[in-house]
Amino acid sequence: MADTKQDVFPVVHWFPGHMAKATRMIKEYVKKVDVVIELLDARIPRSSANPVISEVVGQKPHIVVLNKADLANPQATKEWVAYFEKQGLTVLAIDSKTGKGNKQLVKAVERLAQPIIDKWKNKGIRSRSVRTIILGIPNVGKSTLINKLAGAAATRTADKPGHTRGQQWVKIGKDLELLDTPGVLWPKLEDQRAAARLAMTGAISDDVYDLESVMKQLLNQVNEANPDLLAERYKLKPEELGDANQLLESIGRRRGCLVSGGIVDLEKARRIVLADYRNQKLGNLTLDGVNEEPLATEDDTKHDEE
Ligand code: G4P
Which ranges in the chain are annotated with CATH 1.10.1580.10? Predict the structure, then answer.
């Protein structure tokens, strides 16, 4: 039977006051830079986007970076890259944990900055380094990326006498500096589908959402993407398959998640499946589909009213 319960019930929200403050602060940061790097999770490029990102970025040159591409479905990542390119955006898929794609990122930012440098030259303005910032929701990999880029930069500049690394700006390329503090934006918690996917990928703390509802959605998505995968992984017989509830019950039984009376400890079964998804045991599953209808969010509504 189809499940109608949709709410993920996040109990921690970004309140309007926090959002307004974060927006103000990041707008101030953005004023100081020439190019903006927006970091998204390659598994959920739509759900991991901040609802007011375009307002925050304004007219600044902007690059979309799909991080954690190592965890996403490669074909889906290609589709997402094409999707953003079609919107006229510069886009790149990277894995900032290993640093794969970081060089291309630096090059892409330098390319986006070139017209600005040319303009300075034409106006006879003394050229300074081009500056950039990384923006994104919590856990999308901002610090990992900054550390990787800054680490590489530190090695490059270490042997230059008198060259000390600034407190705030890190040199990451030829005439390119990165703000070493990321801009933290809030996620789309009001959009229940996005909230569930943020929970699945670990972007929302495990204490603040309804695991039952999230896991139903995850099981349905895994099943839809690859109907044989759960049966193979958990060695389920045909009669043990079914909807998300039946699957969970069967997985729990197979994995020995039993409490007294032979009842399945569903909570334990849910945690096993969630850990398996996060540890790549259920494949490289991209949860956001390029062709899915985006849901209207309460955030959008609130924002329109401001
Ligand atoms: P944030 O600053 O945006 O909040 O995110 P942060 O860099 O702290 O990264 C959040 C988690 O995502 C970290 O895992 C980090 O290692 C992981 N991560 C970041 N980029 C990538 C990537 O491209 N691929 C993969 N597979 N993981 C990535 P963690 O479990 O919280 O920490 P740790 O165990 O890795 O130290």
Answer: 210-290
CA of 100 to the centre of ligand 1 (A): 14
Could you tell me if 60 and 36 are in contact, meaning their C-beta atoms sit under 8 angstroms apart? yes
Q: What are the CA-CA distances from residue 119 to residues 113, 114, 125, 152 (Å)? A: 10, 9, 8, 29
* Structure-token pair, residue 72: 């996403």
pTM: 0.88
Every domain range in the chain assigned CATH 3.40.50.300: 16-179
pLDDT in tens, 143-155: 999 999 988 665 4
What average pLDDT does the segment 34-60 reach? 95
96 Cβ closer than 6 Å to some ligand 1 atom = yes
51 lines ligand 1 (CB under 6 A): no
244 carries a ligand binding annotation: no
Task: Flag whether pLDDT at 19 surpasses 90.
Answer: no
Whole-number Å distance between alpha carbons of 102 and 236: 41
- Find all residues with CB under 8 Å of 160, minimum gap 6, and list them: none
**What is the number of alpha carbons within 13 Å of residue 197 lying toward its C-beta?**
24
pLDDT in tens, 166-193: 448 999 987 899 998 899 998 888 888 9
33 labelled as ligand-binding? no
DSSP letters spanning 226-278: -TTHHHHHHT--GGG--SHHHHHHHHHHHTT-EEGGGEE-HHHHHHHHHHHHH
CA distances from 191 to 12, 31, 66, 116, 296 (A): 14, 29, 21, 37, 7
CATH class, range 210-290: mainly alpha
16-179: CATH class: alpha beta
